[in-house]
Write a structure and sequence with these properties.
The chain is of the alpha+beta class and 196 residues long. It folds into 2 domains: 54 residues; 103 residues, Nuclear Transport Factor 2, Chain: A (Roll). It contains 4 helices and 4 strands; from the N terminus they run H-H-H-H-E-E-E-E. The protein starts with 20 loop residues before the first helix and ends in a 7-residue tail after the last strand.
Length: 196
């Protein structure tokens, strides 16, 4: 076949059969999809890691009841499972939880609630809480029923029960963000027994 390129070799001398242009496009599209999926997986993994760093993980150690706290990712002891310092958050953290509870109960605009919550809670928690329908909050006139009580804790995290005058309660998790700065990282409805 002189003078004309061989249709089966794509005009090349390597003897490989030519691929029609359509299958080249399909292969290119497949490679592009694979690259995008890989980038998405990497981004999600990095996002999970950054979420872990913004919310302090509980560490292994004794709780206020004397039982061992569960081991979690990032909390493996380096030398000994017994902490060398205090085994619970400082007493002042209950005050942070109380200030959080008062700000959380506010029946004001989202922006006013944001300003009240920002000094005592993580930004991601504040972002979610300002969207709460105020009709779901404790009724007007509800007050705190005493100081928040520590349910379990470590030097880096404390779980508190905050009761309200209407008999309801919330469970608040506070984390140590270093230099004595404690912020609320989670809030959940309290146990049903708190109403009784």
């Amino acid at each position: 076949m002189r003078g004309r390129p061989d249709v089966y070799s794509g005009g090349s001398d390597d003897g490989e059969p030519a691929r029609p242009p359509r299958s080249r496009l399909v292969i290119a599209a497949g490679v592009a999809v694979a690259v995008l999926l890989g980038a998405l997986v990497v981004a999600l993994l990095q996002d999970d890691e950054s979420d872990d760093s913004s919310t302090p993980a509980p560490t292994a150690g004794a709780t206020t009841s004397g039982a061992s706290a569960p081991m979690t990712r990032g909390s493996m002891p380096t030398t000994s499972p017994v902490p060398s310092g205090p085994t619970a958050p400082p007493d002042s953290v209950a005050g942070v939880v109380g200030r959080f509870a008062k700000a959380w109960m506010q029946r004001t605009s989202a922006e006013e609630r944001r300003r009240a919550l920002a000094p005592v809670a993580t930004a991601s928690l504040v972002d979610g809480l300002v969207l709460t329908d105020v009709s779901l909050l404790p009724p007007p006139g509800t007050r705190l029923a005493g100081e928040a009580t520590l349910q379990s804790g470590t030097p880096s995290q404390g779980i508190y029960l905050q009761r309200f005058s209407d008999g309801e309660s919330i469970v608040v998790t506070a984390g140590n963000f270093g230099s004595g700065r404690w912020l609320v990282v989670d809030v959940q409805p309290g146990p049903e027994s708190a109403a009784g």
